[in-house]
């Protein structure tokens, strides 16, 4: 069982319901209301900084054709109106379509629950950048005095996953910007954590982006060794297809490490998963096996 599956199981029916029941479920429980779009304010605890324009356009087209199948979830704001809990992309799509009113479900929850739900909603869609994810965890710890284990339990992840995500925040802002933008992988970022000087780490990160350095080459440079002579990159045929790149990116975000997928003829292929320490290997084994590996 994957960590995502475990996470969803750990959430329980209560949190899953808060993430947004279907329209049919909301109608059945009598909680569905129609609210003016202009009275709904964005979620102040939203961890995701960017919304992909292409995916938003796809959602807009889907809603235009089939309607809004899952209402947004809001809470009453202290200053009047409503505050979004879950469904930011849905609300933006409805706004883009010119809707004046939107189907919604009202819940009364505290700030900690709102931030937790916002994190969970994005983590389950696998579209949250590693940096936004780490900052979300950090905010839960700082603002609500939670431990890493508390956060892990709340969002349905392993404590080691939360700890490794938080370590990324030690990187310089320029490096975090490259990681957030997808120019660097989590594997590259973890290798750069071994560099104490922020300027050196930033310079090496920029070289990695400009020259297409692999994680192994970054590690060699961090250790002070001579990086191996770069070989011409060979085209991998179907391995370079957009679908494969999306699979790789989804696996990187899920596993928190560098992943490469190679496809061969007749549907065969390989998945290469990198780890960078004994602790990292133990964390990955726990994700794969669903329980700590006791050897």
Characterization of this structure:
By secondary structure, this protein is of the alpha/beta class. It has 2 domains: 1-170, Conserved hypothetical protein from pyrococcus furiosus pfu- 392566-001, ParB domain; 237-289, no CATH class. Helix content is 53%, strand content 11%. The strands form 2 sheets. It has a 5-stranded mixed sheet with strand order 1-5-3-4-2. A two-stranded antiparallel ribbon has the order 6-7. A hairpin with a 5-residue loop joins β3 (72-76) and β4. The longest helix is centred in the N-terminal third of the chain and has 16 residues, at 3-18. Residues 1-15 and 225-239 have low confidence and may be disordered.
Jot down its keywords.
disordered N terminus; 295 residues; globular; Conserved hypothetical protein from pyrococcus furiosus pfu- 392566-001, ParB domain; alpha/beta; two-stranded antiparallel ribbon; single chain; five-stranded mixed beta sheet; 2 domains
């Amino acid at each position: 069982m994957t960590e995502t599956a475990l996470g969803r199981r750990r959430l329980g029916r209560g949190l899953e319901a808060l993430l947004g029941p279907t329209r049919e479920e909301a109608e059945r429980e009598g909680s569905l209301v129609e609210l003016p779009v202009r009275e709904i304010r964005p979620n102040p605890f939203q961890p995701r900084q960017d919304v992909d324009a292409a995916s938003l356009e796809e959602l807009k087209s889907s809603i235009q054709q089939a309607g809004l199948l899952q209402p947004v979830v809001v809470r009453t704001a202290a200053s009047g109106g409503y505050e979004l809990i879950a469904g930011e992309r849905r609300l933006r799509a409805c706004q883009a379509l010119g809707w004046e009113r939107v189907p919604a479900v009202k819940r009364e929850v505290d700030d900690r629950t709102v931030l937790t739900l916002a994190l969970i909603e994005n983590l389950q869609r696998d579209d949250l950048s590693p940096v936004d994810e780490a900052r979300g965890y950090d905010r839960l710890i700082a603002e609500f005095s939670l431990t890493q284990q508390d956060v892990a339990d709340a969002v349905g992840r392993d404590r080691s996953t939360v700890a490794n995500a938080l370590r990324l925040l030690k990187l310089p802002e320029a490096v975090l910007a490259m990681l957030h933008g997808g120019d660097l992988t989590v594997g590259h970022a973890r290798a750069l954590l071994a560099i104490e000087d922020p300027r050196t780490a930033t310079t090496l990160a920029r070289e990695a982006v400009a020259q297409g350095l692999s994680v192994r080459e970054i590690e060699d440079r961090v250790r002070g060794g001579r990086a191996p002579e770069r070989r011409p990159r060979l085209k991998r045929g179907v391995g370079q297809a957009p679908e494969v790149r999306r699979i790789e990116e989804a696996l990187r975000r899920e596993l928190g490490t560098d992943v490469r997928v190679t496809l061969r003829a007749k549907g065969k292929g390989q998945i290469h998963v990198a780890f960078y320490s004994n602790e990292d290997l133990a964390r990955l084994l726990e994700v794969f096996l669903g329980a700590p590996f006791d050897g």
